[in-house]
Amino acid sequence: MTVSKTVMMPETEEVVCPFGRLLQVLGKPHTLQILYGLSVRSPLRFTEMQKELKIQPKTLTARLHELTRMGLLERKSYSEIPPRVEYELTEKGKDLRGIFSEANIWSKKYGYDPKNRKS
Known about the structure:
Elements: H1 20-26, H2 31-40, E1 44-45, H3 46-53, H4 57-69, E2 73-78, E3 84-89, H5 91-94, H6 97-109
Antiparallel strand pairs: 1-3, 2-3
């Protein structure tokens, strides 16, 4: 005979997602692609990101500005001809790598592995 226990949550427990604001930012188009790309290979130039991630320049510019303002990316400009600008994750941005690691584990466990095209 199996006895199951019901775990009661305290009535004072918050049901509002404590990281909803973060999810709003990460949920914007291409934001996760940019952050993941820079977590894999950094620094990257604007044109490299545009070509590899297949993001329109206007959208990429907007996301890079937002992520830089949030302190997740650092923009480095070099006084060269032609001008060179590179982006890389800040320490704050690097701390998001754990999210990618956990998402990878979950997606492999439940069949959303990008290497498995049937997902």
